[in-house]
Design a protein that fits this description.
Largest sheet: 13 strands, parallel
Strand content: 35-45%
Mean pLDDT: 84
Helix content: 10-25%
Distance between the termini: 75 Å
Radius of gyration: 23 Å
């Protein structure tokens, strides 16, 4: 067992950063924790290095540690700054943030935690090859970015126990990354995941962009408390997504990505608003998704905002100019769900415009949870209108104009009835 904690450590502070160092061409192996750690660094670079057989993070820009010391290989030293960050399903601990540092052209494999971690502002990870990460910490990502204006681009990620890329913060960019075989040991996450359960923070952490990434074979394995399958024991593929906007994530642009062969839905938007999905290609096969059998899943709009402080300020999510190609006779285009502790359902969840939908030989269907809250008779009637509109969409697919006309008359009658009840 290696006795060295970290092979290379660079330590500065926010007031006195270490600047302009470059580590190039090193081969770093056999450490209890990290290959190389930078804390309080500015404009430093790690390029062309090989990191393998370390128990923690391969290249650690910001000195990440898992705050729960029983997760992953136990660490003996952490950064001087010790900034706690709650990422939704992980309690993280960072040192002093780094600024404008770069990890490029590195080969990182067989490490206990993340392949690369970035914490701070303006840091970049590009053209790296990351594989077989998370051998000790099964809930870590291949590449984690926490902070603002950071970039992950042109990275090749393979064989990850959980997310390929995890993002927490604002104005970060993930582009031209190739992620395959993620979510091999866990459930309820994605090839690329953003997460923020604090609504007040989520509406501030805007401007993240995911573009031109290729996300293939997001598998999923296990059993999870709020997932309905397999119920007992473990199953795979299971409860995994291509892109996951978890918690109340807002203001993300998802453009030009290719997502295929997920264990669950291609896209999961949980509680946030103002997210745009445009010009993406989503492809799934004929097999039934074992959790949320649909291409897209929505949770309740602006969860944990019981006072309605933010919901009215957030526009609905928008899906336009995407291609959805999928099989499965029971697979829906999208589903809208309901969490028991949520304040209610907001019909502004999303708009779908000008998408190309290919469900060969089968109708295009959507699904609303049968426990969606109807706080009044007017709400219940509006819900009936939505269900009739679903039926109209199916009739349009079949070209039944007479039935469509009859259904539209019924929709107008119910809408007038709902308006009268609301006004009274």
């Amino acid at each position: 067992m290696p006795v060295v904690e970290d092979l290379i450590v660079v330590t500065g502070t926010a007031e006195q950063p270490v600047e302009h160092l470059r580590f190039h061409g090193f081969t770093l192996t056999e450490a209890r924790q990290d290959g190389i750690s930078l804390e309080g660094a500015r404009e430093c670079q790690v390029t062309g290095c090989t990191v393998r057989h370390v128990g923690g993070v391969g290249i650690n820009v910001g000195y990440l540690r898992n705050a729960v010391r029983g997760v992953g290989l136990p660490w003996r030293a952490a950064g001087v700054g010790r900034k706690p960050v709650h990422s939704g399903d992980r309690e993280l601990l960072f040192g002093f943030p780094c600024t404008a540092c770069r990890a490029a052209g590195n080969d990182v494999s067989q490490v206990g935690g993340e392949g690369i971690a970035l914490y701070g502002e303006g840091n970049v990870a590009d053209n790296n090859h990351l594989s077989q990460t998370g051998t000790y910490d099964r809930v870590c990502a291949g590449l984690t970015m926490v902070g603002s204006r950071q970039i992950a681009s042109h990275n090749n990620l393979r064989d990850m126990p959980r997310d390929g890329i995890f993002i927490n913060g604002r104005e970060n960019l993930a582009e031209y990354n190739d992620i395959r075989n993620s979510m091999l040991y866990t459930a309820d996450n994605a090839a690329i995941a953003l997460r923020q359960h604090d609504v007040a923070q989520a509406v501030v952490d805007r401007g993240n962009t995911l573009r031109f990434n290729r996300l293939l074979d997001t598998v999923g394995y296990g059993s999870y408390p709020h997932c309905t399958h397999p119920g007992e024991g473990y199953g795979s593929p299971f409860c995994s997504f291509g892109i996951y906007l978890d918690g109340s994530i807002c203001g993300v642009t998802v453009y030009g990505n290719i997502v295929a062969r997920c264990g669950g839905t291609s896209v999961f938007v949980q509680f946030g608003g103002g997210n745009t999905f445009e010009n993406n290609l989503f492809v799934e096969g004929d097999a039934e998704r074992l959790q949320f059998d649909s291409m897209v899943f929505f949770g309740t709009f602006m969860f944990a905002d019981g006072d309605g402080k933010y919901a009215e300020k957030e526009p609905p999510n928008r899906f336009q100019h995407n291609i959805f190609a999928y099989g499965g006779p029971k697979t829906d285009l999208y589903r809208v769900g309901q969490w028991r502790s949520s304040p209610g359902w907001d019909t502004r969840q999303a708009t779908f415009d000008d998408n190309l939908i290919w469900h060969p030989g089968l109708p295009v269907t959507t699904w609303l949870h049968d426990k969606l809250a109807a706080k009044s008779l007017a709400d219940l009637i509006r819900l009936q209108c939505l269900q009739i509109q679903r039926a109209i969409a199916n009739l349009r697919q079949r070209g039944n104009l007479k039935k469509i006309q009859q259904q539209l008359v019924e929709v107008h009658r119910l809408e007038n009835e709902a308006d009268a009840l609301f006004l009274n």
